[in-house]
Every structure is written in C-alpha cells, then in structure tokens.
Amino acid sequence: MIDMIQRLGLDHRFEEEIQETVRKHYLELETQSHGCTDHDDHRQLSEVAMQFRLSRQQRYKVDSGVFENFKDMKGRLSQKFWGNIEGLIELFEASQLSMEGEDDLEEVGNFAYHLLSSWRSRFHDHHEANVIANTLKYPVHKSLPRFTPRSFLFPKSQLDNGWLMPLQNLSQMDTQIVNSINLQEIYAVSKWWKGLGLAKDMKFTRDEPIKWYMWSMACLTDACFSEERIEITKPLSLVYIIDDIFDVYGSMDELSLFLDAVNRWDLGATEQLPDYMKACFKALYDITNEFSIKVQNKHGWNPINTLIKSWVRLCNAFWEEAKWFSSGKLPNAEEYLKNGIVSTGVHVCLVHAFFILGQGINKETVALMDGFPILVSSTSTILRLCDDLQGAEDNNKAGKDGSYLNCYMMDHPGVSEETAREHVKRLISHAWKCLNKECFASSSSSNPFPSSFAKYCLNCARMVPMMYSYDDCSPSRLEGHVKSLLGGDNNGTIRERIRKDQAPVL
Predict the structure, then answer these.
(1) How far apart are alpha carbons 341 and 350 in whole angstroms?
(2) How far apart are CA 496 and CA 123, in angstroms?
C-alpha cells in the first residue's frame, strides 16, 4: 500500500502513517532476509527488495547484504529467480537507491534490468510487457510520480486490492486541487514577469516564464508550497536571462564590466554598462534583496550574504565559459565539469529554495550553503552530465561552450563516442550514489540539512529526464503537462487573464 501511495504521489498526505509502518517492517527486514525457504523465496525476493527500498527512503540504516541469500556461490543472482518478474522489478527498483561502496547492489540491479528487458520482448500479455517497460523507463526513485504515465503502473497481482480504487480516486482529487493551484501560480508568475519589464528591455533573451516555473512546480509538489514555488521561480528566471547575456549577446568588454558589478554588488558600479545590462543587474539586485527580506520576516534569518555569494559564483562560471568560447579553446574535461556544475545555476536555485523553505537554518547549514555541499554538487553534476549527454544527440541543443563529452574525447584521442558516452553514464551513476548517500544515510557529517531540502534536491535531479526530451520531437512531459493545464481550464479564467495581461504562454 505504501508503494502504491508513493507511485500515486500521495505520500505527502500520509507521512506519519508511512513512517510508523516502515519502522515496524524495518525491524522485520533483517529477520526475513536471513531465512529464505524453498517454498516462499520467490515472494521473499519481492518483499525484501521493497522493504529495503522503503526503509532506506525513510533513512533507516539498511545494509545491501540483505540480498546475499538470493545469490549463488559465484555472487550472482540465483538462476531460480531469473523468471520471477515481480521480484526482478523490485530488485531493479531497490538498486536505484545504491550508495558509494555498494557496487554489488548496482551490479545485481543491472542484471535485473537485462533480464527484464529480455522478458519484455517475450510477453504476449501486453499489460505485463508495459509494466516492465514502465518500470525500466521510470524507476520510482528517479521519477516524479505526478508526471509519470499512469497506464500500466500496477502489476496484475495488485489490481484486485480493495484499497487500490479509493487511493486512485484520492489521487485524482489531489491532482485536481494541485492543478487548480498551479494555474493560479502560472498567472501570478506571468503577471510578475510582465511587470518586471526585462522582456521589453532585453528582446534577445528567452521569454519563457511559464517554462521556468515548471522547475518549481515539479520540485515542490505539495499544494501548501504555493508561495515558495512563485518565489523560487523569480531567481530561476534570472539564471536563464544572465546565461543568455553571457552566452549569446554580451561582448567580452561588456561582460567584464557586468561581472565586476556583480562581484562588487553595487548599483553605482553599473554606470558604464549598456542599458540592457543595467536593467538586468537592477532586477537581480532588487529581487535578491526582496527575497532576503521575505525570508527574514518569515523565518528570522537574513540570507543576503549567502545569496550574493551564489550569484557571484554563477557569474564567474559564466565568465569562464565566455572566455572559452571567445578563444575557441575548450578546457580539459575535469576543468570543464568543475566549472560546468556551477554554470548550471542549480546551486543558485537550491540556495534560494533552502532559505524559502525555512527549515534547518542555522550557522552550520548556512556555512555549508556558502560553499558547495555534496547534496548540491551531486544534483548539479547529474543535471550537467545528463544535459550534455542528451544534448550531444541533437546539434541544435549543443552549447556554444562545448560539452563534457567533447572535452573528454579531446582529452582521449582515439576514444569512440560510444566509449565516451559509457564513461559519462558511469559518472552520472556515481553522482546518483553520492546524492543517495546524502539523502538516505542515517548519519552524514556533510549533510545536516532537513529532509524537506533533501527531497527538493532529489526532485531537482528527477526533473532532468522530465524537462529534456531530446530523443523525439515531442514536447517534454512537463511542457505537455502545463499545456494540458492551460487547455483544461474549463472556464478559461486563467487563460483569459494571461491573454489580457499579454503575458507569454507556452
């Protein structure tokens, strides 16, 4: 039931019940995994794998050794489980939560992946085949339930549960409530963006406030975070705008002056800037100060110094990329990635999210946010490498400042693109392991952050495949979802208000 609640995106409504139930099952997990018998071991593989996943999600210390009883003498998954579809599905799902040092769990998960891929092609039952396909493409841990296709979500063995239909009905009602709130937020963001005036002052930049809002919408799914979603969208939009200035429009002399103004954080330092840069820096200055005052009034801490540091770090990273493009010389792969995880802008957005959420703000966590904590850097790494890896497949998506794939192949002449791509995938896998450790390890000296912020970082990483759809010509799932929201506004109120305000829509 907990598994289905999570798959339906309802876990925020049952947090206490889930915590208590998982606690009880966690106490049983080690006992269950130590005594498989021949008649129930197939069922036990599924149960142990699911209990492992759910317990680890709740930050219980669960050792991956619980799967040893399901292996043969050579350390591989015992052959008698190769046809256990539900067991393989749960084993694959559990492997997505592997941490550093758990290569054995990753390996058995990869083996389950290949077995399931093979079984999928043999099934005449389309439902079972699609359950497998859905699992392999959208593992629970690396997907956002609200934006994952609901068809073929449940194996047949779950369809007869009496509690499934009420949960599905609740999920539909919850979705309607959240969709209604999101529509109001879309209007508020569009109105704010129009009032800001940057679209008129800087016609060369992207003008996509609703698309920028998608990040906040997907990372903070609980209906109660309406104000937070709107506030996070504001600095996020400036990340895109400033990126366009450095990447597309500004000359090197202008960019140097703009960077100096940001580093000094002084409106008086903008006198020599062109008008469009003056307007951008003033917006950055005002929005950051307004955001800081709001956090101070709401949570009792003024984050202005940390926010300024994050913007300075981002603009310096943009400046490095601009110099690479101007000189025509790309850096080595290590240097590119070190700078690239900053230039994603993820750090800036996560810093703002941390403060507006308001939990766990103290000297220790603020000092960590002044730097680049692992929770943030691993999230940034996932986005940078996934974006570069997928963008490399589409010439239109290739950045002017190169990609990690290009830099790596330059560093290793003669290496095939396929080999380079496999290397990047391993780096992404490692970043996920680091992120998992920070989110789920029972104790971590590097992560004193609250679970609410850890979940936000996780959702940010989960967003990457949701936001980017380079494998086909269709819109991303998030973009399609927002279009559906606007198209499904039956009385047309929000769409009409957006039209009258002449705010851009997708």
Answers:
(1) 13
(2) 48
Rounded to the nearest 5°, which phi and psi values hold at 471?
-85, -5
Half-sphere exposure at residue 198, Cβ-oriented, CA atoms within 13 angstroms = 27
Q: What are the tokens at 297? A: 């009034």
Side chain identity at residue 295, one-letter code: V
Taking residues 326-354, report their average pLDDT.
95
Per-residue model confidence as pLDDT tens digits over 417-434: 999 999 999 999 999 999
Identify the structural domains of the chain with CATH numbers, from first to last.
2-161 (1.50.10.130), 169-500 (1.10.600.10)
Instruction: Report which of 173, 287, 270, 177 is spatially closest to residue 235, judged by C-alpha positions.
Output: 287
Tokens of 129: 């085949």
Return the residue matching tokens 């054995």. Answer: 104
Rounded Cα distance, 111 and 117, in Å: 10
Beta bridge partners of 376: none
Nearest-angstrom CA–CA distance, 441 and 14: 22
Report yes or no: 399 and 330 within 8 Å, Cβ to Cβ: no
Position 472 confidence tier, pLDDT thresholds 50, 70, 90: very low
In this structure, what DSSP letter does residue 331 have? -
